[in-house]
Write a structure and sequence with these properties.
Layout (H helix, E strand, L loop, with lengths): L2 H7 L6 E3 L8 E3 L9 E4 L12 H6 L4 E4 L9 E4 L4 H12 L7 E6 L4 H16 L4 E4 L4 E3 L2 E3 L8 H10 L6 E5 L2 H5 L8 E6 L7 H4 L2 H14 L1 E10 L3 H9 L2 E2 L2 E7 L6 E9 L2 E8 L2 E7 L5 H15 L4 H9 L9 E2 L7 E5 L4 H14 L4 E5 L10 H11 L2 E4 L9 H9 L8 E3 L3 H11 L5 E5 L6 E4 L2 E4 L2 H15 L1
Parallel strand pairs: 2-3, 3-4, 4-5, 6-10, 6-11, 7-10, 11-12, 12-14, 14-15, 19-23, 20-21, 20-23, 21-22
Antiparallel strand pairs: 1-5, 7-8, 8-9, 13-14, 15-16, 16-17, 18-19, 24-25
Helix pairs in contact: 3-5, 4-10, 4-11, 12-13, 13-14, 15-16
């Protein structure tokens, strides 16, 4: 498709256009390193450097046209200026590859906690409705394109990258589930995508290094419901969450999009009436339109009562039969790094979990405390180059729900590890039993050494991650593997 026709078909409003010729476009690229002959280069503003800085490099690599937020009259190549380049990427992809998403059932999941598990429930559900080969998932742990799993560099990909994958796929998706992060929403990363169902799990403190305030964080999440639900689609909202209630009060019905509420409170349309949690899994009783249903899952923890109910509510909004929902939840595989029990043959329990916010940590620790006959020991830290205000809150969450702790490094990134730990310790009560071990491997070994029969050791923060980032460099580090190594070392030295 020619450049000018692409702009017209995608209905892109340009503020200026220039350059010579009307070249044929073969691809849409926002990273100059990925440009190939025939590409349209879209100069995206970055957090550190603007894409405009790489226009010359992109043209040298074969870009035949450029879109920027600035006039580029010095270019001989065809160019166009638009108000927001991120907002046009997905639209350009839909037009260039002729993709019609109307035939694809789409679900977007947002919230501070529970996105990955809830999205996983939907993937397992759609495997049964559409077949595993036609069911796609994009999320924190990785991307699943039908039966193929691929790594993920970020929780929510750029819409144009998803559309390129669809265009190149041998078997096209019939369903697509996506975790919608607040970063992606605020940066218009998913512009061009629309969802049949948008799910709100909860909102608690996180990412304030990026959003600056909870109101700004909320406003980013809210965009999924105000901007990205298909006409006739539905928002599914947890009204036990205060921000969920706020969302419902602000968006009772927007442009024909309706909201379906869930929770324990009276008035929730999909209401949680009872539940049971143990080491074998979770069951929840739900009331909906005068009928009662019971759903079970092998996933552990009270927070999974909400994740399950979110998935049930979304499935009901899509009109999926409750028998299929029941089967999907009951067969849900364990989510990597979420309440992951590491079986090392010890007389105590070891749990690895991704919890890296105060609220998530409280949820995991309370669940483990209720299921543990002995003491609860927690290994935890905080990530570097992230929201510093939550660090003492993490210590408070641990002190209020554990018997002892080892404070250590998470992913320090570019920060000094001990400086992060000092911030954490500001929230640690003087009378709480803890010790500090900067090296995470040593911290895990220390906690396992202290564990006695019937105790539970929770190693929090990294979950599924198989790396640790120190001084900007990633090295191999998997909490689950380290538990196995350290316990074997302890046992061999006895």
């Amino acid at each position: 498709m020619t450049f000018h026709k692409l702009l017209a078909v995608a209905a892109i409003k340009v503020t200026a256009i220039g350059g010579s010729g009307n070249p044929v476009i073969s691809d849409i690229v926002y990273d100059s390193r990925n440009v190939k002959p025939g590409s349209l280069y879209v100069a995206v503003p970055g957090t550190r450097v603007h894409g405009d800085s790489f226009i010359e490099s992109a043209i040298k690599n074969g870009a035949v046209a450029v879109i920027s937020e600035n006039r580029r009259e010095e270019l001989s190549a065809a160019w166009a200026a638009v108000p927001n380049v991120r907002a046009v990427l997905g639209k350009l992809g839909l037009a260039l590859w002729g993709i019609d998403m109307k035939g694809v059932t789409t679900v977007g999941v947002t919230g501070t906690n529970g996105k990955t598990t809830t999205a996983g429930f939907f993937k397992n559900l759609f495997d049964r409705v559409y077949g595993g080969e036609c069911s796609w998932l994009f999320g924190t742990i990785g991307n699943v394109l039908g039966n193929e799993s691929v790594g993920a560099s970020q929780t929510t990909p750029e819409a144009v990258d998803i559309l390129r994958l669809i265009n190149n796929a041998r078997v096209k998706p019939k369903s697509l589930v996506m975790e919608a992060s607040s970063h992606a929403l605020s940066l218009s990363r998913i512009a061009g995508m629309e969802f049949d169902v948008a799910v709100w799990t909860n909102l608690t403190q996180d990412h304030l290094d990026f959003h600056k305030s909870m109101d700004e964080y909320y406003a980013a999440k809210r965009l999924l419901f105000s901007e990205y639900i298909k006409r006739g689609g539905r928002g599914v909202v947890n009204i036990d969450d205060e921000y969920g209630r706020r969302l419902c009060s602000e968006l009772k019905s927007v442009h024909g999009r309706s909201l379906l509420t869930y929770g324990r409170v009276a008035g929730a349309e999909v209401r949680i009436s009872a539940w049971k949690c143990d080491w074998n899994g979770t069951s929840v009783d739900i009331e909906y339109q005068g009928k009662k249903f019971t759903f079970t899952s092998p996933l552990r923890g009270f927070f999974n009562v909400y994740n399950m109910t979110a998935a049930v509510a979304g499935a009901l909004a899509l009109g999926i039969d409750t028998a299929i929902i029941t089967e999907a939840l009951a067969s849900m595989p364990t989510v990597s790094g979420r309440m992951d029990i590491v079986d090392v043959g010890a007389p105590f329990t070891v749990v690895v979990d991704y919890a890296h916010t105060p609220d998530a940590l409280v949820n995991v620790l309370k669940t483990c405390k209720e299921l543990t006959g002995g003491r609860l020991i927690c290994v935890f830290g905080c990530g570097g180059d992230r929201d510093k205000t939550k660090r003492p809150l993490m210590a408070k969450a641990v002190a209020e729900n554990c018997d002892m702790a080892v404070v250590t490094s998470d992913n320090p990134r570019s920060e000094e590890p001990m400086s992060i730990i000092d911030d954490v310790l500001k929230g640690m009560p003087l009378d709480f039993s803890y010790n500090v071990m900067v090296d995470r491997r040593d911290a895990i070994k220390s906690a396992l050494s202290k564990a006695q029969p019937n105790d539970c050791v929770v190693i929090a923060g990294k979950g599924h991650e198989a790396y640790q980032e120190i001084n900007g460099k990633r090295g191999d580090f998997d909490d689950r593997l380290e538990v196995m190594k350290m316990y074997k070392l302890i046992r061999d030295n006895d």
